[in-house]
Amino acid sequence: MSQNPVSSGAPADAALRVVAKEAVAEGVVALTLRHPTGRRLPDWAPGAHIDLVFPTGLTRQYSLCGDRWDAHTYRIGVLREPVGRGGSAYVHDELAEGDVVGVGGPRNNFPLVPSQRYLFIAGGIGITPLLPMIRQAELVGADWTLVYGGRTRTSMAFRDELAAYGDRVVVAPRDECGLPDLPTHLAAADATDTRVYVCGPGPLLGAVENYCAHWPVGQLRTERFVPKDRGASLRDEPFEVELARSGLAVTVSPGATVLDAVQAAGVNVLSSCREGTCGTCETTVLAGAPDHRDSVLDDDERSAGDCMLICVSRSCSDRLVLDL
Amino acid sequence: MFAPAPILPVSDADPFALDVLEDPLPFQADLRDAGPVVYLQRYGVFAMGRYEQVHAALTDWQSFQSGAGVGLSNFRYETPWRPPSILLEADPPHHDAPRAVLAKILRPRALQKLRASWFRDAEVLVDQVLSTATEFDVVADLAAAFPLRVFPDAVGIPDSGRENLLPYGDHAFNAFGPANGLVAKGAPRVAELSGWVNEQCAREALTADGFGAQIWAAADRGDITHEQAPLVVRSLLTAGVDTTVNGLAAVLYAFARHPEQWAGLRENRTLARTAFDEAVRWESPVQTFFRTATSDTEMGGTMIPDGKKILMFLGAANRDPRRWENPDAFDLARNPSGHVGYGMGIHQCVGQHVARLESEALLTALATRVESWEIAGPVRRHLNNTLRSWESVPVRVRLGQ
Ligand code: FES
After folding, report:
1. Mean pLDDT, 10 residues at a time, over chain A (324 residues)?
2. Cβ A45 under 6 angstroms from ligand 1
3. Please, what sign has the CA dihedral across residues A56, A58, A59, A65?
4. A window 136-175, beta carbon within 8 A of B
5. Could you report the per-residue pLDDT of B129-188, keeping only the tens digit for each?
6. Of A110, A137, B84, B124, which is the most buried if we count CB atoms within 10 A?
7. If you average pLDDT over residues B76-80, what whole number do you get?
8. How is A44-61 classified by DSSP, letter by letter?
């Protein structure tokens, strides 16, 4: 079996291999990712995203748009951002089939809540989280409509997958039909107590949010991706972990987890899933900047930086001090 | 590579027979040794007792569904005795929203608020028990008393009627097994107990600040439906009491039987956290759960046909010598991580952090006061089709400074 070397210096435990890369529209590639050993990947639900960690240290979030019944691969769609900060250009120009890339998550800030009816609104690459939602809405027999806007027909990814749904899908390329008639769709949704899911560029989200400002909490669900620069490049260097209560210090090498390193030092920490999903190994951080790779903590808890799931998460700083 | 087709071992043993429930260990050892998958003729189900297969089946929800029931009864063909749990007896996508809501309410950071008061409650209870006697029953006086004191308050149900929780849970866990004498014993009170439990799940019955109210608030936000909210509360009340009571009984019994381990805990209090998981591995309060094959599925060299029930022996997996060194020892020097006593995967016990916190509070309070203790009389099991449960563990304690 031929295997490309780890290209990004990403830690082996939190890295997936690109097993397919295909152009799916003008400026959009779809990546299929798999664990280097082929093992099951952590479970996810529609609306979930993963973090890709690039060699520059930039972390970018991509919605999962594959099939959750396939436990061994993740699929994401990546748009080349003309004014991006290098993440999407790296994916388009550098990342190749066979490469390994650092991955965090999956996490879900955009879960599909139960409802009889959904209105999905996608702008461009915002279609990605909605694809598995649509499949799920079909599965549970819900009533749904998709309004899919984009620049031009050729720039709009996954249209072939959507073609099967017939006139439930309203495809509206701007150069052919102008802007989609959101007020009409939203008024109809409001009248029928429909859950509305929107993903796309800022102006689209802003327009929808304005229109729905008076709606009950939770009826409108949006997701906004904000690329995060961690201010430190991805560590392919080892880092130090200080265990405050036991007075020990250990070095975490790129291929090992913090949990392994702590245990090797003779300090027992409970864990269970070892994939960042169950929460058992949560540990208080006294100093340093954790590099969160788990599926458990929410955004506030992550930015607070005072705890981490040590079975998968790593460090942005040279040194972490843990309450162990 | 040529691999001869393995022969499926067949067993006519009854894992739900009273003598097996009384002491399941010999049966479990036979099951593990017979092969990775064994056919239980008496019930027409497939069984697995080895860690590797149990772990694999628990995590593979795509192949082994819960929605046809996690008991012997197959919901594809039979009507359940109560509306199915929207957590335990549901698969994705229906399982997603209730699970996400409950997981958020019960995650470790959210429980921090309860920590100080549960530690105080544990001290008060331990003081009460120790001030009246140096001989007592750890099951009734501690293992059952503590969860019944703190957990219903945390959920937010009223004081009156709490005595119904244990018999309700006992029946619910019996009902996962075959319709044997244990189920018949609980049947006369089913309507009354279910009625009472269902009443506690209504919004009006719940205090404004508990887990129950948070579940209803999630329904107001549309994260789950208003029809789902009472069923999620019901899951908490069904799954959150008997299991913890038996987990605590297990860890207290383990320490009474292993004085050297208690001395170790007294020396190093941080072991309180490990102790509970080691006890859950060692005694496995939830012994078994079923799954149902979603299609013809290969497992351990055996083809399990679509729609067939698979019985996973969590307790047997947790003592599988293929996975654990010296598995029958209760040993705090071991790292019990990875045990399947809470399940594994998308159905892994969502209340595990609650149970661990209860145990940590109780063991910490006991470690401060009790220097050593021993079994003071005959111990008695309480038999249940699913739970490894205790009726009585009398102990004698020596108090420390
Ligand atoms: S062990 Fe499950 S989150 Fe770390």
Report:
1. 34 79 97 96 97 85 97 97 83 96 94 98 97 97 97 96 96 94 95 95 94 95 72 71 95 91 92 95 95 91 93 93 96
2. no
3. negative
4. 136, 139-140
5. 999 999 999 999 999 999 999 999 999 999 999 999 999 999 999 999 999 999 999 999
6. A137
7. 93
8. --TTEEEEEE-TTSEEEE
**Structure-token pair, residue A243:** 């265990």
CA nearest to A69 within chain B: B62
Ligand 1 within 6 A of CB of A271: yes
Q: Report how far residue B166's alpha carbon sits from residue B391's, in angstroms, rounded to the nearest whole number.
A: 12
Pocket residue to mutate for ligand 1, from A258, A260, A273, most atoms within 8 A of Cβ: A273
Cβ-Cβ contacts under 8 Å for B111 (sequence gap 6 or more): B353, B354, B357
Question: Is the ipTM above a cut-off of 0.90?
Answer: yes
Nearest 5°: the CA angle B222, A296, A194 is 20
Q: Tokens 């915002």 map to which residue?
A: A126
CB of B93 less than 8 A from some CB of A: yes
Of the candidates A78, A92, A98, A72, the residue with the CA atom closest to the CA atom of residue A20: A98
CB contact under 8 A, A140 and B93: yes
Contacts of A109 (CB under 8 A, 6+ apart): A47, A49, A223, A298, A299
Q: Which atom of ligand 1 is nearest to the CA of A295?
A: 3
Report how far apart, in Å, the C-alpha atoms of A110 and of each of A129, A192, A206, B165 are. Answer: 9, 21, 17, 36
Burial class for A69, CB neighbours closer than 10 Å (0-12, 13-18, 19+): exposed
Gap between the Cα atoms of A131 and A137, Å rounded:
10
| Token output for B301 | 């060299």
